[in-house]
Each structure stands twice: as C-alpha cells, then as structure tokens.
UniProtKB/TrEMBL annotation:
NCBIfam families: PRK10201.1. GO terms for biological process: base-excision repair, AP site formation. Residues 1-162 form the Uracil-DNA glycosylase-like domain. One of its GO terms (molecular function) is pyrimidine-specific mismatch base pair DNA N-glycosylase activity. The keyword Hydrolase applies. It comes from Actinacidiphila rubida. Pfam families: UDG. Keywords: DNA damage, DNA repair, Hydrolase. PANTHER family: G/T AND G/U MISMATCH-SPECIFIC DNA GLYCOSYLASE, G_T MISMATCH-SPECIFIC THYMINE DNA GLYCOSYLASE. This is G/U mismatch-specific uracil-DNA glycosylase.
Length: 175
C-alpha cells in the first residue's frame, strides 16, 4: 500500500503468516504496529489492519523489505533481506516518500549493510528520502514496551510532520 509523495512509508520486515492470509499488513492480533501508530498521533483513531488504505489519505503508506511470509522474521535469510533492501531502494527512489521508516533494526542492518545502525534517524538517504529505523512492533520484541514504542513512533511523526503534526491521541481510559 504505497503512493507517490507520502510523508512516511513504513516498511515492515516481511509479512507474517496472518498478514499473508488476510492480505493486510501487521494483521496478527499481538502486533503492536496499529496501537503504536495511533498512540503516537499518526492516526486519529486506532485502525484495524483491514482499514490500512485509510493511511494513504494521512500521507502514510506501508510496504515490506522481503516478500516471503514466515511465522517469524528470523526465518528469512540474509540474502533475502539484502535482495529486499535493493528492491526497497528502487521503490523508494521511484515513489520518493519524505521518510522511510524501517521497522526492525536487525533487519535494517542486514538489508542495508549498516552493521552499527541504531533506532532513530539515520545518516543514509535514498535519493531525497530520509531514513528512520524504528523498533519492530512484533510482540516478540517485548523489551520495547507499548509506551516506548509509541514514543519512538511519535519522534518520527514530529520529524515528518513538524508543526503540522496532530497531537498524540489521549491515553485510553478503562471502562
């Protein structure tokens, strides 16, 4: 789900089995992408994976580094990630989003040969596109709490939208 001229193109590592089955990004119920996207202010409400097309009207899109669906991202080979990085680079050069946000520092390091990359903005640019590495929102990446994940997404939102960034969503209240 991508278009020309996006503010942010989010890039997952690869489709999980649930995403491949449903045809929607980050479809596994335990994945924290959609909650983090909303909590950080990218979306006015929490979207369901089936509503991903709504992101385009917000200047946001989603793609993946690798196309092969797996139960876990660590099932991909380094060769698949490197090849995916080359294809992603061509896609970014063609579509020219302002920011590419790669979700997963280990996958980013492998796909782009940046062995020491850390979460946050990168020095690397692809054409005129700036690159930001975000933590993987997978539930397997539990050392990133939902609040910390939303905070890092929020840093990117502020960088991408600046003064025009909508305020983050208020915290959900228990009922």
């Amino acid at each position: 789900m991508i278009a020309d001229g996006l503010r942010v193109l989010f890039c997952g590592i690869n489709p999980g089995l649930m995403s491949a089955w449903t045809g929607h990004h980050f479809a596994r119920p335990g994945n924290r992408f959609w909650p983090a996207l909303h909590a950080s202010g990218f979306t006015p409400r929490r979207l369901a994976p089936a509503e991903e097309q709504e992101l385009l009207s917000l200047g946001v899109g989603i793609t993946n580094v690798a196309t092969r669906a797996t139960a876990r991202a660590d099932e991909l080979t380094a060769e698949e990630l490197v090849a995916g990085g080359r294809l992603l680079t061509a896609k970014v050069e063609r579509r020219a989003p302002e920011w590419l946000a790669v979700l997963g520092v280990t996958a980013y390091r492998t796909a782009f040969g940046e062995r020491h990359a850390q979460v946050g903005p990168q020095e690397r640019m692809i054409g005129g596109t700036r690159v930001w590495v975000l933590p993987s929102p997978s539930g397997l990446n539990a050392h990133w709490t939902p609040a910390a994940l939303a905070g890092e997404f929020g840093r990117l939102r502020q960088a991408a939208f600046g003064a025009s960034a909508p305020p983050p969503a208020p915290p959900a209240t228990a009922s």
